[in-house]
Automatic annotation (TrEMBL), chain A:
Protein name: ER membrane protein complex subunit 7 beta-sandwich domain-containing protein
Pfam families for the chain: EMC7_beta-sandw (PF09430)
Lineage summary: Eukaryota, Fungi, Dikarya, Basidiomycota, Agaricomycotina
Organism annotation: Trametes coccinea (strain BRFM310) (Pycnoporus coccineus)
Keyword 4Fe-4S: no
Membrane topology reported for the UniProt record: Single-pass membrane protein
Family: Belongs to the EMC7 family.
Domain of life: Eukaryota
From TrEMBL, chain B:
Record lineage: Eukaryota, Fungi, Dikarya, Basidiomycota, Agaricomycotina
Transmembrane segments: 987-1005
Coiled coil segments of this chain: none
Entry protein name: ER membrane protein complex subunit 1
One GO CC term, this protein: EMC complex
Keywords: Endoplasmic reticulum, Glycoprotein, Membrane, Signal, Transmembrane, Transmembrane helix
Length: 234, 1017
């Protein structure tokens, strides 16, 4: 028995003189508690020519890895794992394990090394779905457009009473400022929309000035225009 | 930046809602067609005994798709499967009570143990490097697995390479001992293991002059030392097929026996550890074969006599004993040859079933023999069952499982594998279920549009009497209340036809298939290499119809049909039911290859040529007596015709009508046919034209116009062309109001080259991607791709003016990144902006065809892929996405915006922002929201077929390989239907609120006006 076994070892060692079996373990975490959750998974080097399956206890072995630098990744259907950089040396019986970020150059290598045997744990479970937006009154009123509309409505209702309480000079000043504000606001809001739109609003803003002699009509018509513009945008 | 781009992608494009999963898509997980050639991989029943005494039956099998699968015989569902890699073929599997061992790879390189009930991988050990393994023919020769018995129940014995035996501990995977044949150079090839408590017997064959001699070695199971070794005086001509190792686990005191056929008689040799015995001969009959029916561990085998009659032989204390002769089993033209299969019942008693097909009664028969019944005299239960041979071909394998609920009554369950790749379970004469595993081997598939539903038949309206019309209108009107109710409900709730709803099924099955509102429902016509064509409903994946190919004259010698191309020759737009033409190669068993054409109706599967009988095999038409070189569909405004080129480049047309001839003559002047030619290893691309004059044979013969040789290290691996989809815009308007015109040469062809498959891999192997003008052989674009250890795995696709290719870059030098790469290439006309050469209509003789500007960009891709396809829409307005089948068994889409070759390297300027360009990031994000197959495991996808729906925004996606998967995707979101997020309630709420505001405000305003008037005047 001894002799055949020795022969056996010799036969396998002549192949693997410069190679090593890369061993590691997938750690079961609450995110990925068992192989049942993970499904059929394998740990591969580079493009998958060298690989090892993940067994029930999480361990894996990639046999006969020759000297070189490799990227280790886990091929699993639903879970994400970090990639690792593995350096296998001809002289050393232990490989060097480093974290690796996809797309970064292999040299210079990251200074931090990780322990060997490799321990991997799932970084997260893939979420394939987007939640559907559902109707929510509160969310609807959180919408800035909606808030602006409400604000405009409130202003419109309050305006006449506010105006009444102002003295005529202040009113005159306020109207001028208001006209300016509307033109600025409209140009800001319309953005890439046709400039004609802003002109339309500008003309609406001009109206109170023209109708300054008839202050009774001014605010209400200006307010109505303003609201009209808002509704159009909706 | 990456996060930002991910966010950007996520917000402005298609993603799946959880409620849509399984509604807009479907997935059929398949196991593959069982490997029935070898008993080590063929399906078998297995009964798992639990500790509480309960048992559960399962069916185990290894399949042609390289999958180890376990099926539930009660429901036919796939319990679990383990998908093996393509370079790691399953050679054998073996079950014990709670684990399955599988041996795979060249010479048995890998041993894996699985939990039988849930398929968890328990152990994976590599026994030798696959490169060092010995190749045998047949593949499973030289490898075997056996479980230890008795005290060695923890051990697994693995024979690899024909001469190495290992004893492996089941739980740790440690090699307890190894033994290898002392003289490896000798001609002994071991192939079978018999593990007993006293010895492990290895059975091998030694090649001697003109025949083989059996060789047995006995090894101590505890230490692995050889006990005895020697040839058994024998002379065998047919290898291991007529050798059986017989023992009885129920009576362990019986000595196991080696049984073989020699000179038409059965000889046996009792096995004892010291191998001291004399061979014995069973006298009295002339035999032609000895069959191991799967219960050799229970001491029974089937021997077939010279006249074809079968008898059961059993191991007993006085050697071998014939215990049963099957009546009426003599070879006869009235029935097919018998298939024998052995199985066990709950208590472990063996049963042997004989199954045959009766040509007279057109039914299959099963005779189940139970040796222990009728006070040990044996009992046969016979019955016939209505196997549908016209639907499933012939039975190629049987596995049996039996029950004996009461004395003199045997219930058998038969697990059949058929020649078309279906597996069926029959309980006595009742069919329990059928799985069409042949669908795991689809070679060609096409999506065919369905016609609209006929609303009402108004035939003969003109000659209707008043009474008849009144009656008709009344009968039409009786549906009106329902319609009104529906209308009202639709109006109130806003439940319109939705893009995320399941495609409506017509409950009426007799009604002809019809499409849905958006054209999401189509028929998938798919042909498999197991001689069957299927029509699959794209709404739910059910098989609508299927036909088995007839072999024509080759039915006498046998043969098989391999589908080559599938063309839709008539669509619904032509006003009639759609039809497809399938071009196949028929390989007869006498070596002759013919090109056979099948022409079927895509909705019903009926033969459009009218040659075959309904519900029988589909008869084809031999169009070329010889292999096919190329076939394609000619499309002109006068019609469609299939053009075939045989090996002498003669032109054949189908259908051979005046109309198709006119179509051909019309297309003739512009036909340029690029072909692969030359022997493997030095393939070239050659261009051909067809002369207007016919040769003396009465056929046009294509002549060569150009040759494009590739470097000697490169061989053509794949040729791909642009899909014939319409192109909506001829150019791309840039931010600075200039235009890049797309290069849309209709003859553009992509070629992937790589080291020849016939040569040994070498380090200097080179690969490349070429874009060639198929009309004159000019290379428009070329990229050299580094090889990985002499191999290349390049996947590419071409759509409009956009080429995308994917490969693995193994360069590990400074500044390099080892990763998968995807390169996106866009071709534009001229040498800059605003240059236009009208490439889509340009004559191929023009020099302008080579004036091209190329934009390209490489990206780091998240992983390996098996195939890649672009999306396809009706008018080509929607952005094209790239759909890949990735290594994680997923179907994933990648948006064009990430792959745009014009992504700027710096922060995008205002002009670039206007084009929606995002800053270059070398890594393409792996976004799970774009995994179309979400939780489904879509394994070994070979091809993704995309097809337009009626909605411009939506593209239908069908992926096939091992599994089938169908979904739909809207690359630019469903812009042409009301969004799923559209909220009718919100709209109503807003309008209602506004109306309320008006109602409240109106009196206030009026009152105010009135007051103002009073105050002003």
């Amino acid at each position: 028995m001894r002799i055949p076994l020795a022969l056996f070892a010799l036969a396998s060692s002549c192949v693997s003189a410069l190679a090593l079996d890369l061993k590691g373990r997938v750690q079961w975490t609450p995110q990925c508690p068992s192989l049942k959750e993970l499904g059929q998974a394998k740990v591969v080097l580079d493009d998958g020519k060298m690989r090892g399956g993940v067994t029930r206890d999480g361990s894996f072995t990639i046999p006969d890895v020759p000297a070189g630098t490799y990227i280790l990744s886990v091929i699993a259907h639903d879970h994400y794992f970090d990639q690792l950089r593995i350096d296998v040396f001809e002289s050393d019986t232990l490989p060097e394990v480093r974290p690796y970020f996809p797309g970064t150059p292999l040299s210079p290598a990251a200074p931090a090394t990780l322990p060997y045997p490799i321990v991997l744990s799932a970084r997260g479970r893939a979420d394939y779905f987007v939640p559907r937006e559902s109707f929510n009154v509160l969310a609807m009123f959180k919408n800035p457009m909606m808030m602006m509309m409400l604000g405009a409505g409130a202003l419109m209702l309050l305006m006449p009473t506010m105006m009444k309480n102002m003295d005529p000079e202040a009113l005159e000043e306020f109207k001028e400022r208001h006209a300016k504000m509307t033109s600025i606001q409209s140009s800001l809001q319309s953005g890439d929309l046709a400039s004609g739109f802003s002109q339309l609003l500008a003309s609406g803003g001009d109206e109170p000035k023209a109708a300054a002699s008839a202050p009774s009509k001014g605010p209400s018509s200006g307010g109505a225009k303003h609201r009209g513009g808002k509704n159009k945008r909706k | 930046m990456r996060l930002l781009s991910l966010l950007l992608g996520a917000t402005c494009a298609f993603a799946l809602h959880a409620s849509e999963a399984g509604v807009i898509d479907w997935h059929k997980a398949l196991a593959g067609v069982p490997l029935v050639q070898s008993a080590a991989t063929a399906p078998s029943f297995y009964r798992r005994a639990f500790d509480n005494g309960a048992t559960r039956s399962l069916v185990l099998t290894a399949t042609e798709s390289n999958v180890l699968a376990v099926l539930d015989p009660a429901s036919g569902s796939l319990e679990w499967r383990h998908v093996f890699d393509d370079d790691d073929h399953i050679l054998a599997y073996r079950k014990s009570n709670d684990v399955v061992a599988a041996l795979s790879g060249v010479g048995g390189a890998y041993l894996r143990l699985f939990d039988v009930t849930d398929g968890d991988l328990l152990l994976e050990t590599r026994l030798h490097s696959p490169e060092m393994g010995r190749l045998f023919e047949p593949q499973d020769l030289g490898t075997a697995v056996a479980f230890g018995v008795g005290n060695q129940a923890q051990d697994v014995y693995v024979l690899t390479d024909g001469h190495v035996l290992r004893c492996i501990d089941r739980s740790t995977g440690d090699v307890k001992w190894g033994w290898s044949a002392p003289d490896q150079t000798s001609l002994v090839v071991y192939s079978k293991i018999l593990a007993t408590p006293s010895a492990v017997y290895l059975l091998g064959l030694t090649k001697s002059f003109a025949s083989y001699t059996l060789h047995v070695t006995s090894i101590s199971p505890a230490t692995g030392e050889m006990v005895a070794n020697g040839n058994v005086p024998s002379s065998i001509s047919s290898g291991f097929s007529d050798v059986v190792l017989l023992r009885d686990l129920r009576e362990p005191e019986l000595e196991p026996r080696l049984v073989w056929l020699e000179d038409k008689s059965i000889k046996s040799f009792p096995l004892s550890p010291n191998l001291k015995a004399k061979p014995a001969v069973i006298k009295g009959a002339v035999y032609k074969s000895v069959q191991d029916v799967g219960i050799s561990d229970y001491g029974q085998l089937v021997a077939v006599q010279e006249d074809g009659s079968g008898r059961v032989i059993r191991l007993s204390s006085e050697g071998l004993k014939v215990i049963w002769d099957y009546a009426d089993s003599v070879d006869s033209p009235q029935r097919s040859d018998s298939i024998y299969a052995g199985g066990l019942d709950v208590d472990g008693y063996p049963y042997i079933a004989r199954v045959f097909w009766s040509h007279v009664y057109k039914q299959a028969s099963a005779h189940v023999f139970a040796s222990h019944l009728a006070e040990g005299k044996g009992l046969v239960t016979g019955y016939t069952f209505p196997f549908k041979t016209e639907e499933h071909g012939v039975i190629s394998h049987v596995a049996v499982d039996a029950a004996n609920p009461e004395p003199y009554r045997v219930l058998a369950r038969l697990f059949l594998t058929t020649s078309t790749g279906a597996v069926q379970l029959w309980q006595q004469d009742q069919l329990q279920w059928t799985r069409e595993e042949g669908l795991s081997d689809i070679r060609v598939a096409e999506l065919v549009e369905l016609p609209e539903r006929k609303v009402a038949a108004h035939a003969g309206v003109a000659h209707e009497t008043f009474g008849a019309r009144l009656r008709r209108q009344l009968s039409d009107a009786q549906d009106f209340p329902q319609y009104a109710v529906n209308f009202a409900r639709r109006f109130v709730t806003g439940s319109y036809a939705s893009v995320s709803a399941p495609v409506a099924h017509s409950s009426n099955t007799t009604e002809l298939l019809s499409r849905d509102a958006f054209g999401f429902r189509k028929v998938i016509v798919a042909a498999t290499a197991h001689g069957k064509i299927y029509g699959i409903d794209s709404a739910d994946g059910n098989v609508l119809w299927s036909r088995v190919f007839g072999l024509g004259w080759a039915a006498q010698v046998g043969g098989h049909i391999i589908p080559a191309k599938l063309f839709v020759t008539r669509t619904v737009n032509d006003g009639e039911t759609p039809q497809v033409v399938l071009v196949t190669q028929r390989k007869a068993n006498n070596g002759l290859v013919d090109t056979v054409l099948f022409h079927v109706d895509a909705l019903t599967g009926e033969d459009a040529m009218g040659k075959s009988v309904p519900h029988d095999v589909l008869q084809g038409q031999d169009v070329v007596s010889g292999p096919l070189v190329e076939a394609f569909l000619l499309r002109t405004d006068t019609g469609r015709a299939v053009l075939l080129l045989d090996e002498f480049l003669q032109v054949h047309l189908y259908p051979e009508t005046e109309e198709s001839r006119r179509t051909f003559e019309k297309a003739l002047p512009s036909l340029r046919i690029p072909l692969k030619s030359g022997p493997p290893g030095q393939r070239r691309l050659t261009g051909h034209q067809i002369p207007p004059k016919v040769e003396f044979t009465g056929r046009h013969v294509a002549y060569q116009t150009w040759t494009l040789p590739f470097p000697p290290t490169e061989d053509i691996r794949a040729v791909f062309a642009r899909p014939a989809d319409p192109v909506a815009s001829l150019g791309k308007v840039l931010g600075n109001r200039t235009t890049l015109y797309k290069y849309l040469n209709p003859n553009l062809l992509g070629v992937i080259t790589g080291p020849s498959a016939t040569l040994l891999p070498s380090k200097d192997a080179a690969c490349g991607v070429y874009l060639v003008d198929g009309a004159k052989g000019t290379i428009i674009y070329h990229a050299a791709i580094p090889s990985v250890d002499g191999f290349c795995d390049v996947k590419a696709t071409l759509v409009e003016n956009w080429l995308v290719y994917h490969y693995y870059d193994n360069e590990a030098g400074p500044g390099h990144v080892k990763s998968y790469r995807v390169v996106s290439v866009e071709l534009y006309e001229g040498h800059g902006v605003d240059e236009r050469t009208m490439s889509s209509d340009l004559s191929s003789l023009s020099n302008e065809t080579t004036s091209v500007s190329v934009y390209e960009q490489a990206y780091v891709f998240p992983g390996g892929i098996t195939t890649v396809s672009p999306t396809s829409t009706t008018y080509g307005i929607t952005m094209k996405d790239i759909i890949v089948a990735n290594g994680n068994h997923q179907i994933q889409s990648f948006p064009r915006r990430f792959l745009d070759p014009r992504r700027p390297k710096q922060k995008p300027t205002a002009q670039e922002m206007e084009e929606w360009l995002i800053q270059y990031d070398p890594v393409i994000p792996n976004d799970p929201k774009r995994v179309l197959s979400h939780n489904y495991q879509v394994a070994k996808t070979r091809r993704i077929v995309t097809s337009p729906a009626l909605l411009e925004s939506t593209s239908l996606v069908f992926a096939y390989g091992l599994d089938l998967f169908f979904t739909r995707i809207a690359p630019s979101n469903t812009f042409d239907v009301l969004s799923e997020n559209f909220n009718k309630a919100q709209l109503v709420f807003t309008i209602g609120g506004l109306a309320l505001a008006i109602v409240i405000v109106k009196p206030i305003v009026e009152r105010k006006r009135l007051r103002e008037r009073w105050h002003d005047q």
